[in-house]
């Protein structure tokens, strides 16, 4: 048995490490490596399955804490204990055995604070002591980088600080979640909230990051719902010059039409009248735009959502897969820069990357630019770039469409470092009509430059075509028609799912306190690069928000919680940002985990004490009624008196207590049914044709659904 044990975060990561060496043996719990220069006696790679251990649940400390009672709050254990996750005991036992037999143990988990937590929590729970422990720190899973990492293992001191930071975060989130979720749930239930609508239960999940994130979305929705459009009036000029027509706008915007009319009358103009105008000035400037910065995870998530409507969670999962396939560098990065080391291999592969992207250009430069290459801006992880492992066409063809799109996006931003700037000529025309100046701006593309790396959206093409202006000269006379143009002020747009990432990063814009703004800037908003997509998934899973056609809306259940936490620190991005700032100090050895947890206990105790008053002051009756109404999908086709409701795992009649047993499944033949399809089925007895069913022989088919004479659901196939 080897005396070196490597602990990976998950089996796929262990497999990637093993591929850099010669494998001697494999089993369900480990991979054994043959002896080599790196490991003269061989090595064992074992793994977690994510978190092998987790914090104990309340009921494991005291039996009474297992039940939800207001009288037991706050729940504040003196010493927090870890326990093996119930479904992972066999793997933990194997890991413990290998740790006991090892002389050297290597933490090979992800290089972030949660990776440190996963390893250290597992290591401490095994009770193993007196072993040498080292840290593997790599940003790529390529063979060369893996070997370099194992030959240059890091001391464990930094890892232990990151573990302290992660543990402080984990325990504090436990305290907030356990206590305030129970407090708000139980007090809202006392107010009559049953959670019988919008696919939800009455349990309210409250969290340090998820609650302020939800409240930010709620704020935007409230702005939209309470927005009152107001008319405004502007002056538009339509001009005919010798070489073509163009339009311009005066810098006039008034709430009253009479004010604009009086201005025209003063200058002797009538709306719609053809008169003479003069080109007062023509200014042409050649401008250039540099290629975008290299991607961080957030910028890639935002771009992918805008371009392909991919959710942030799907982007992270897909990038993790590409990382495991050794095609991209570590994805959970908040950095837009690389160091000279990465730039060196990227420069050597420029031609190969061009062939992968099927583009061809002569590099404008092969020198490193500070816009992209700056080692002083790289702390733990550098920007997302392709690895030096250039895949063949077979590998590319085997990628999913999402993997191809995201890989090509990373390739394009990387190649942008070497491409020419986007060049265009901007023209500004000032046209004078009886002392009223009209301003026109347009541009003419001179060199597509780096933009040639991307397929231009059709909308962008149309906009650029429309922006081309005719050639005019200063002092040229033009035929002019001035009109009063009426417009309406518009509400803010609802968030798309991709915009939630930037919303969480830039929430400092909504804060007035200067100190809080600085803290939010320092920690880049709420959440971290690695957790933001998970937070969005959490508030979706809790049914606080819904995403339809990429537009995010707060559900009635989400509104109930936001009404209840309004005005508290739970609705404030500032609080979670201050927490994050102190957590980072713990990671740097400048803060105390115990002090942080004590402060959290004080915060939780205060909040629990205030919850009753907060909820009593909340006007939630209308929201409760709205939620109940939103869940009445259709009249029950069986009893006719009840209504069909979403019962979380199925659709059923509200009259079940009166004896109606009518139900409909959420999924049939592998296809999830929408609420609109259920409504149509109940009201009309039949749906439209539905695609995407899967037969027992794994073949896809399409059919309508109908209710038969016994009110049972059945397929209705098109007649041949």
Characterize the structure shown:
The protein has 720 residues and is an alpha+beta fold. Helices cover 38% and strands 21% of the residues. It has a six-stranded mixed beta sheet with strand order 2-3-4-1-7-8. A six-stranded antiparallel β-barrel has the order 9-10-13-12-11-14. A four-stranded antiparallel beta sheet has the order 17-18-19-20, covered by helices on one side. The chain is globular and about 95 Å long. The N and C termini lie far apart (67 Å). The model is unreliable at 196-200 and 460-466 (pLDDT under 50).
Give the helices and strands, then pairings.
Blueprint: E1 4-8, H1 11-18, E2 23-26, E3 30-33, E4 43-47, E5 53-55, H2 58-61, E6 82-84, H3 89-101, E7 104-108, H4 113-126, E8 132-135, H5 143-150, H6 157-190, H7 210-225, E9 231-241, E10 244-254, H8 257-266, E11 274-289, H9 297-308, H10 312-324, H11 340-348, H12 350-357, H13 393-397, H14 401-415, E12 422-433, E13 436-447, H15 458-466, E14 477-488, H16 499-505, H17 514-523, H18 532-541, E15 545-548, E16 551-554, H19 556-565, H20 573-587, H21 593-616, H22 621-630, E17 634-635, E18 643-646, E19 650-653, E20 663-665, E21 667-668, E22 671-672, H23 675-684, E23 690-694, E24 700-707, E25 713-716
Parallel strand pairs: 1-4, 1-7, 7-8
Antiparallel strand pairs: 2-3, 3-4, 5-6, 9-10, 9-14, 10-13, 11-12, 11-14, 12-13, 15-16, 17-18, 18-19, 19-20, 21-22, 23-24, 24-25
Helix pairs in contact: 4-6, 6-20, 6-21, 7-18, 7-19, 9-10, 10-14, 12-14, 17-20, 19-22
